[in-house]
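Tip: read the tokens left to right.
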């Protein structure tokens, strides 16, 4: 793509970047919420059952986060290639 993008093309590209960043931000906040809950329970000396349930939820979420980021890598690359 030509490095001299039209104003409309620049605006479209900016919107695409913003949409991608919003998706990733939302996904990261989900994981951060689970981390916060897990360590809050640890510091509160919660029951073993609660600790184990929250640890399992966090481990599952980290796996999902990895999959999400792998799936988003081509989208990031495609947008980076379009960005002058």
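Filled-in amino acids:
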């Amino acid at each position: 793509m030509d490095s001299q993008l039209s104003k409309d093309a620049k605006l479209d590209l900016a919107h695409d970047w913003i949409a991608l960043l919003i998706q990733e931000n939302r996904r990261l906040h989900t994981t951060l919420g689970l981390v916060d809950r897990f360590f809050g329970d640890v510091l509160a000396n919660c029951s073993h059952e609660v600790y184990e349930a929250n640890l399992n939820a966090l481990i599952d979420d980290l796996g999902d986060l990895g999959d999400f980021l792998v799936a988003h890598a081509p989208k990031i690359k495609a947008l980076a290639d379009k960005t002058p």
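DSSP finds two helices and no strands in the chain. Residues 31 and 61 are 6 Å apart (CA to CA).
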